[in-house]
Amino acid sequence: MDTEAPPGNSVVAVGPGRTTPSTGRSAAGGRPASHPKAIAHDPLAALRGLLARPLSSYYLLLASSGLLLVIGLVMVFSATSVEAYVTSGNPYASVTRQAVYALIGLVAFWFTQRLPVRTYHAVARPLMAVALLLVGIEDLAQGLVSIGALGAPKFGPIRVDDLWLYLGPVQMQPSELGKLALALWGAGVLAQAGNTEKRLRDIAGNLLPGAVLMLLLVGYGDLGTMICMAILLVGLMYAAGVRLRVFGWLTVIGVAGIIPLVLIQSYRVQRLTGFLSSPAKCNVSDPNDPCYQALEGRYAIANGGWFGVGLGQGHLKWGRLPNAHNDFIFALIAEELGVVGCFVVLALLGVLAYTGFRIARRSADPFRRIAAAGITTWLVGQATINIGGVIGILPITGLPLPFISDGGSALVVVLAAVGVLASFARAEPDAARALNARPPDRWVRLLWAPLPPLPEADGEPGRRPRRGGPKPPANAKTDRPNRDQARIPPPRRRRPESVRSEPTRSAAPGTDAGAGRATGRTRGVSKTRDGAAGRSATPRDRGARS
Known about the structure:
21 helices
């Protein structure tokens, strides 16, 4: 027999242990979702409750990136302490330099998380121009040296050394800055194009010229970074709603462009042939063999086993494994911390990826959504390329592992990009309402981060409330108004004309007796609602009495 639900309470079909949205109770036993037995029946209920909090994205981002940074400093010390002691007598030389870059990166993180979205709109185009200029100077110096037109790669105070650019005492990699510049500039261009589905002609005149120029300039000297930028560009276009067939055409064009870039550099051809050749044909005793680094990395992974040989106890880093502190630091993690340590690193990277895409999905502003998706795709793609090259499923490209590998410019730019994500996480609609409803102390806002703007639906766009944010909404369970709403008295109603007029003393002939009794109950009313004296009888009342 069909039953009908009582009015005002919707019935929602849920699985066992799920929480019904209408009553907030668990489907198993009718208990609330926070009840211990309901949580025991549905173990993911507590996790969903934590993820439903307004600032969950912000705290997940801080936790995952902070733990990866600490693991990176520890592993850099483990990889470089012995060689640093042999060369300089100080085992802390390399890790101290990396810690200084980490401190600079934390300052960059603090600065970028404080910036509003309009500032990112303003600096995106100049930052892209500066990155193109620096990469162009680097490629020009290397090209002039290769053809003999320039004796040394140097223009006044600017000096080029492989992928490094020296501006006086400042040392940097322009390609690392180009990643962040491409993410912000591309997000701004795609956000201005609107929310409609985009064809190839919609991005051919605004996005592709600058992006292709950046890819070509970077790909001349660093093919791995160019591939990472291409992955970043794919993330930007996918978040902006570009048609899938456009990705097919761009993939074909990209593969056709990568082939000449591989052929113009002999070491790239050697890496590709070493990746495609069988390990049995490689000479393990020759460090110049194309397969040597890849095979030593696999030996380090096999030597670690499940739990590793112990932190600092790995021996392949002592001259056998090339770039153990940089490109192949994941192999060192596998040797010293084992499969468990690798799983921890991969889990933290997975949390970072989930948080970045969560921020992109929850952002109402198109620029924030596209930029967050692009930055997350960049970090995850770079980590995938690095780890894939170490374990042998991808060619070796020389890309560092984000947060962990030794390298100053890469670490500073990555932490600055995480600061951009943190700024977007604080600007999520629920997070912005929560922060403005209960703002922190003034000194906390001055030292850490200001309050984010409220969503447009809660007030003027880009404005913050003057006194502690919006009023808290009514209780969803009891519909009870908040304290400020309870202070407002209800509006007074004007009494009907029959109540305000003087009642009749007797009912007119032919009238209903009940009406006479009803009017008799108003005989005691001597004053009106506003305090004036009672009104005199109207002519109609005098006629009724006569």
